[in-house]
Structure formats: structure tokens, C-alpha cells
């Protein structure tokens, strides 16, 4: 039973005062005693941590105010309630003690009934605060756990949808993961660039990487005889193939409409799906947008997608070397691609190669 008793630390430089308080409190509480401020600080940081401290104010070397200041500045002791016990009974003294962070103020000579009542009250308040703190910690941990769980579900759902499109085109393999990392690399490289800094904050970069795998989701709507054709498409077939951009953005738009509130990564996913085949000079599709009229998300995806297509083997072409693919990307600066995005690609070329090798087929 004694192990469950609250622990009270009494601090006084006078042995008689320690004896009186100890005898008063001992039957109901586990009592520890210190005859100096420094000793009190040592005891307070050892186990069991005191539940309450009765602290004399007037002590040599280190007075009660200094002890309380140290207690409040130390993580392990800052929440321990402190009651000042002192012969100074002036109103100003009491106010000063409370202003320093004491929870109560008892004047000497002590009256046993008053001491016991004040101690009991402060221990009950501490118990309530501890319960509330534990509940808050639990709630914070639970919120973190559920957010992580929701993010995992979201990521799995995104990849499931992206894989659905990928099953229509089995040669793409790890294309989704590679392009996702290419986009992240470009975004990180551009986040401090004057043209991109306002857009590319850490949250948007995460959403860009999260959304990238959905860039070709519209391919589920393209007939097999066109999507899987091993030869060059006819002009008529190419017109149909190009509709995958609008089909993808429309599907995501419908999902966004079904949501109870806006979902940021879906907005970005819709941009990427719709505009990642646009070109800087306006010769792309489906809308023929020019320059900065193309969303940043789509400009990053455009380069990532083309680079990966170049280095990947297809039934209708061999894989380009990294250097040849890089040369084609650089030649497309200002034509197919945003020049600043190309410049970042050149700076991060070794990272692109590392990603390609890490997630090779």
C-alpha cells in the first residue's frame, strides 16, 4: 500500500521544521526531506519523482525562489507543484511567491489542519492535471496514428488506380515509381528558384510526388487495339490516343466532385493528367497551352515522363542511353520543356540516373 502513496518532498534548513512537517505528513504520505536547496534539486530529479514539494523560502546559499526557478527550468521537474512554507506573512511576499510559480503559500508557525488541507487539495489538482496530460498525449498519438493510416490508405489507393492503368500497358513496369521520384527531384531542385518558390512549399512537393503516378490514368479509356498496337499509330488512332489526357483529368474531376471538401493532391493530379503532354512552345496537347500557362506540376511531369520513356525499351523502340536521353531533353529546352526545369534536370542528372537504376525493370 505504501508504494501507492503520493511522495512529498519537504525542504527546510532547520531540522526542527523538517521534523514537525515529517511527523505531520508521514502517516498519509511518503515523505522525503532536504535541508538545502541544492539537495532538494537532486532529490527532485530522482525516482520516485515528488508529487508535491513543500519549500522553505528563507534558506542560506540558495533560497526558495532560486530553487523554484531551477525546478521550472528543468523538464523532469517543471510540472511538480510547489507550496512555499515561510515565516514571511506579508501580502507582497505571498504575491511574489505566487508570481514565481508557487501553487500555494503557507505561513509559519504551521497549523496542521491547514497544511493537510492545502496538501490534499494540491495533490488532487495534480492528479487531475496528470490525467488530462495523459489523455492529451494519448489523443495526440491517436491523431498521429490515424493520419499516418489515412495517408497510407491514400497512397495505396493512388497506386491501385495507377496500377489499373498500368495493367493495360504491361511494358511500363516501374515507370510509376521512377517518374514519381523524378518529379520529386525536380521540385526539390526548384523550390528556392524565384519562379517556383511561391508554389513549391514542402506540402505541395509531397502532393506532387503523391499525384504523379496518376498521370496516365486516362489510358484505361483507350481501346486495346490502339493502346497496345506495336506499330506506329495512324493519324486517326493518334487522335484517339491523345484523348487519354482529358479522360484522366475528367475521371479525377469526378472523384474530386464526390469529395466533401477539396483534396489538394487531387487538384494537382488533375492538372498533371490533363496537361503533362503540353509543350512549352504551344505545340502539345490537348489544349496547346504555351509557357507559364501550363501548370508547374505538368511541366515537371512532362520532363519526367519523356525522360523515362526515352530510357525505357518498348516493342517499337530500343532504350536510349542516359546520355542520349539527356541530350534530347536539353535540346527540347524552350521548345518541349520549361528552360528552368531543364536546367534543374541537368544539375540533378546523376540523381535521375540513380533513380532509374534503383527502380529498373
What are the salient characteristics of this protein?
361 residues; alpha/beta; Rossmann fold; Hypothetical protein af1432; 2 domains; 5-stranded parallel sheet; 5 strands; 7% strand; elongated
User: Would you list the SSEs in sequence order as H and E?
Assistant: EHEHEHEHEHHHHHHHHHHH
Going by CATH, the architecture of the largest domain would be Orthogonal Bundle
- Helicity level, as a percent range? 55-70%
The CATH topology of the largest domain is Hypothetical protein af1432
Strand order of the biggest β-sheet: 2-1-3-4-5
The CATH homologous superfamily name of the largest domain equals Hypothetical protein af1432
Mean pLDDT: 87
Largest sheet: 5 strands, parallel
| SS elements, strand count | 5
Flag low-confidence runs.
Answer: none
Q: Indicate the proportion of strand residues.
A: 5-15%
User: What is the end-to-end distance?
Assistant: 66 Å
Supply the helix-strand structural class: alpha/beta
Number of helices: 15
Spatial extent as radius of gyration: 35 Å
What's the number of domains? 2
User: Briefly, what CATH class of the largest domain?
Assistant: Mainly Alpha
Task: Describe the model.
By secondary structure, the chain is α/β, with parallel strands linked by helices. It has 2 domains: 2-139, Response regulator (Rossmann fold, 3-Layer(aba) Sandwich), CATH 3.40.50.2300; 167-358, Orthogonal Bundle (Hypothetical protein af1432). Helices cover 56% and strands 7% of the residues. It has 15 helices and 5 strands. A 5-stranded parallel sheet has the order 2-1-3-4-5, with helices on both faces. Helix 12 packs antiparallel against helix 13 (322-331). The longest helix has 55 residues, at 112-166. The radius of gyration is 35 Å and the shape is elongated. 33% of the residues are buried. The model has no long low-confidence stretch (mean pLDDT 87).
